[in-house]
Protein 1
Amino acid sequence: MKNHPTDPFVVSVFDVSHRIGDEREVHLDATLAERWGEGVAYVDKGQVVSVDLRLEGLHDGILVSADIDTTAIAECVRCLEPVDVPVQVEFQELFAYSPTEELEFSVHDNHVNCEQLVRDAVVLSLPFQPLCDDDCLGLDPETGQKLTEPREQNASTIDPRWAALEALTSTDKTTANKPAAKKRT
Ligand SMILES: [Zn+2]
């Protein structure tokens, strides 16, 4: 009763099928044949996705609970360094013995195919703005190097052009505090 030889996400449910209350646990490690995720963070082709499945025979189908564990790769949006993003997600879904209108998934030939559910759970959990660290300071605009301490501490070495920009910014703030003046136009 191992996984389907050709598809790692297809699991036999023969031994719990129509046995109400019977449970079985299955662990599967699937190596991705293609990349999952189109955004800045994705699970790469060749990455292993580990899934702990619990199969439970119910009256009208098999209840499948899954704990998924894998690693996505991404680029920190601040410093552009590569980041490993741990992915830990879960789902629970009822696979009907016979297809119905309410249930999207059903048992086929005593097997359930979890690929779409695993993939959706993983892809939906991927971060839109991955960070190498919550406190990542990003890149120094002058040197292009990753900052290891806040830029304010380098204020004495500030380029005069940046100083001019800072002056502009503070002017903006002053005007923003006086909305009445803007309305005169
Ligand atoms: Zn970073």
Protein 2
Amino acid sequence: MVTTNRSRVVVVGTGQVGSAVASSIVLQGLTNELVLINHNPGKARGLAMDLADGSEFLGRFVSIRHGDWDDCSQADIIIITAGPRPVEGRNRLDGLMAAVDIVTPMLDRIRESGFDGILIMVSNPVDVLSWYAWKRTGLPRAQVIGSGTALDTSRMKTIIGEVTGLDPRTVSGYVIGEHGDSQFIPWSTVSFVGKPFARFLADNPGRYPGVSLNGIENATRRRGDEIKNRRGGTSYGIASTVSGLVKTILWDERRVIPVSTLIDGEYEYGERDVFLSLPIGLDGNGANEFTDLHLTAEEMERFHHCAEVVRSHCALIADRL
Ligand SMILES: NC(=O)c1ccc[n+]([C@@H]2O[C@H](COP(=O)([O-])OP(=O)(O)OC[C@H]3O[C@@H](n4cnc5c(N)ncnc54)[C@H](O)[C@@H]3O)[C@@H](O)[C@H]2O)c1
């Protein structure tokens, strides 16, 4: 008798991001079953058909179909990607009210379904919406995460890889805080080929002209806007990131990834009731076990600024709870 569980992932929203996330999950064969939900069911059905048409050439069979909210009750992971289409020149927080209008009925249907898996918020502004989703669904804190600065961290590693010509996976470290303009890189956490990256740059004067820590941080922060300006939106980077989270959770890998999660009095961070990204252990039970980063005083100040930004936007939607 087979004793392994069948896994089910539900993707809500089948626009650019939802389609790319679904595709990444299917191409990697991460789940037994993938269910797509869209307010226009025809679009979800079309995407399911399109993705399923490559089955013959994939490494692992994934059962793909469109579905509805009843499918959420037996889901292991639900990923919410529905939201107002990102508009050039507007930041992620600008679309908050429209985003809340879109996700509120979804979160209610998810709660009513009895879902007890891991909810991954991707829609922006992701930190504010993750907090809202946690409150609105009543799920335990470990089971609600936002993709947060996992993408920004990957962007930072990609940029360092491009600058040095080495594999980005050589970099260890994090972008933390808000997935937005106040995000920052605590350079005290970033190491490269066995030493702090700041030391690596200092040890190689003249080898990387024009490269600075500030420059890398700004390029990381601006990268999403730059992609949006060039191709109208971002989708593949976030898709790889979210499917990485799915793999870590479903396969119980216990990777440490900075995702947006409830910060409520942990270690020296001194924050409560706010969702921000810090590196946290991810596994089949969700997000547990923070790392104490021992931020410098300046980094801590920047972390508190992120909390202020996110909290002030949560206050704007508190009456929607
Ligand atoms: N967290 C991240 O790092 C990250 C990265 C990229 C995009 N995003 C966010 O992902 C979201 C989707 O972006 P996209 O480029 O796929 O946009 P898109 O316009 O291509 O897709 C939006 C999706 O939302 C659905 N939708 C829109 N209005 C709806 C409504 N009233 N009810 C139900 N569904 C509705 C649409 O049907 C579509 O499936 C946005 O919030 C965007 O900011 C997040």
Protein 3
Amino acid sequence: MRWGIMYAVVALAGLLFGASSGYWTADVSRAAGTARIATGFGTVCSDRGGAGHPCWHFNEENYPNMAALDLHRNLGWQDANQPVWWRQWGTSWYDLIGPGGGGVLFEALPTWANCTGVRVTLTNGLAGMFHYLHIDPAAGVHGSTSQEYVTYPSQVIGRKYLGLTKAAEKPNCAWLGPHLHQSGDVAWYTDIYRNYPPIQACGSGSYCWSTYAFYVLLP
Ligand SMILES: [Zn+2]
């Protein structure tokens, strides 16, 4: 289990701090395995009281099937300007992005959308979409399909910097202060809201955990 522990520690460090070291670009051959997608920011969620769970909610106007968590670190207004990363991992690079490779598209939400953020879509035969709302998309994110990744003997971790959490939102966006609203559709491939670790109350209207808020298993 040594590698499992190591990759979990590395992945969690990146999740929390966006640590940047040891990433390079290379190619690896596909091996059988499982790819996963995780939350990008925070280990605290706000109590939204929906979807049979204290934090999950379904409130995206044009995407009613997107199960969401409001993620933060209990820092109040200092939860603004926090880096948000897309993260995924698997037993090979191709397990991350689907059969044949090249299967993740990053896009800034259009200007007509109520809220600001990034959409991540699985392509190349894999269904699935994820939203990272209340962040300013980083330069170069829109239209990109590239990621950084790091390889270990039994794990590959892919990541992409998506942007910073916002200090203010558009007038028509439902927003109660700086946080990341991260959501995913509930298709079979990306059934995120039934894959979460134990959480516990950790303050007024907040729930905490010590690992990923949710993960997605890809086929
Ligand atoms: Zn939300």
